[in-house]
Design goal:
single chain; 151 residues; mainly beta; five-stranded antiparallel β-sheet
């Protein structure tokens, strides 16, 4: 338990000092097609741990944060879900993937990124409207820790 807590503190500290996005830029958020809106308007049944429980395991939850272990097996398509709070992601491993909005429109296709992603990768994300990720790899499991900040 203590080692998990230390790890989470390290992730938060890394994020506080790094604004690196998935493309490695540090000055502005990427121009992705992520939908925004009021998380209070998003269906409660599409919360990540409700809609996609096989992919989102709660490691810690209290009134300030919810820490999720997120996994997506090779060739798996996760159910549509949302993340209602801003988050810090610590992505440990991933192959190619596609992220789609709730209507199935492509938000991001990692195969179209100019340079390959380097892992581990830490990034900040605002609340995410309903979306679904598809792991395109035949061999690599997508693995990350997501710290959702409730306050």
């Amino acid at each position: 338990m203590k080692s998990t807590f230390k790890f989470l503190i390290a992730v938060i500290c890394l994020t506080a000092f790094s604004t690196t996005s998935v493309f490695g830029q540090t000055t502005e958020e990427q121009k992705l097609l992520y939908k925004t809106g009021d998380p209070a308007d998003w269906p409660k049944e599409q919360d990540a741990v409700v809609s996609a429980p096989n992919n989102h395991k709660i490691l810690l939850e209290n009134d300030k944060v919810r820490v999720l272990e997120v996994t997506l097996a090779p060739n798996e398509l996760e159910p549509v879900h949302h993340h209602q709070w801003p988050s810090v992601l610590y992505i440990m491993e991933a192959g190619d993937f596609i992220d789609r909005d709730g209507e199935g429109n492509v938000i991001m296709d990692s195969r179209k990124i100019p340079e390959p992603l380097t892992f581990p990768l830490t990034m900040y994300k605002k609340p995410e409207a309903p979306h679904s990720v598809e792991n395109l790899s035949d061999t690599i499991t997508i693995r990350l820790i997501r710290v959702e900040m409730k306050q």
